[in-house]
Every structure is written in structure tokens, then in C-alpha cells.
Design goal:
Strand content: over 45%
Shape: globular
Order of helices and strands: EEEEEEEEEEE
Helix content: under 10%
Largest sheet: 7 strands, mixed
Radius of gyration: 13 Å
Structural class: mainly beta
Distance between the termini: 37 Å
């Protein structure tokens, strides 16, 4: 199984970025997916999740109304659209497959991460 994130970069406060994640070696359409992040000196945090069935989504409170998770099963790709970004969104963002909601320990497969930096 290979999970690969892309789309990170440097953005100013108030700006937008879209992260992408492709997953191969598993039945993408049949697994829940999630985004997690870890800022320097802080613990990992669950950001958003999406189920494999009807595409139910979840978000941590700090990103509600600003971030949108989506998936394209035909392309085996997960997305995270990040708008109205804040400096506190600066972190390494990780894509994960096969888990439940924002419980990181339940996810079996992880990408290497993509760095997001928001400048003030």
C-alpha cells in the first residue's frame, strides 16, 4: 500500500491551498480516509475524515467552515481544500487510510506528509 500526499506549500494568512492524496494497493473506494497534522513541538491532531460509504465527513472544531474534505474514488484521490488559512494551520499534513473518524491509532496506512506553512 502506498499513500502519497501533495499540494503543500507556503501561503499567506487568508489564502487557500488544496492538498491531494493518492492511495494505491488497496481498495480505495472501500476505506475511510483522514487528514492529520502535526506542528513543531505539538502532538498530532486529527483534522478531517470521510467515510467510504455515503461520504460522511468530520472536522476538528478549529477548521470547521474553512476546510473541506472530499474524495474521488474513480481517481483514488482524497482532497483537503483549505480556505481562510491561519498561521496556526502551519504543520506537516498527513493522509491516512483505513481507520475510523479522527482516531489516528485506527489508521493502518499513512503517507510521508506534505508541509503547509502559513505566513502572517
Amino acid at each position: 500500500v502506498q499513500v502519497v500526499e501533495s499540494g503543500g506549500g507556503l501561503v499567506q494568512e487568508g489564502g487557500s491551498l488544496r492538498l491531494s492524496c493518492t492511495a494505491s494497493g488497496l481498495s480505495f473506494a472501500d476505506v475511510n480516509m483522514g487528514w492529520f497534522r502535526q506542528a513543531p513541538g505539538k502532538e498530532s491532531e486529527g483534522v478531517s475524515c470521510i467515510t467510504w460509504t455515503v461520504g460522511n465527513t468530520c472536522y476538528t472544531d478549529s477548521v470547521k467552515g474553512r476546510f473541506t474534505i472530499s474524495r474521488d474514488n474513480a481517481k483514488r484521490t482524497l482532497y483537503l481544500q483549505m480556505n481562510s488559512m491561519k498561521s496556526e494551520d502551519t504543520a506537516m499534513y498527513y493522509c491516512a487510510a483505513g481507520g475510523s473518524e479522527l482516531a489516528s491509532k485506527t489508521y493502518a496506512y499513512w503517507g510521508q506528509g506534505t508541509q503547509v506553512t502559513v505566513s502572517s
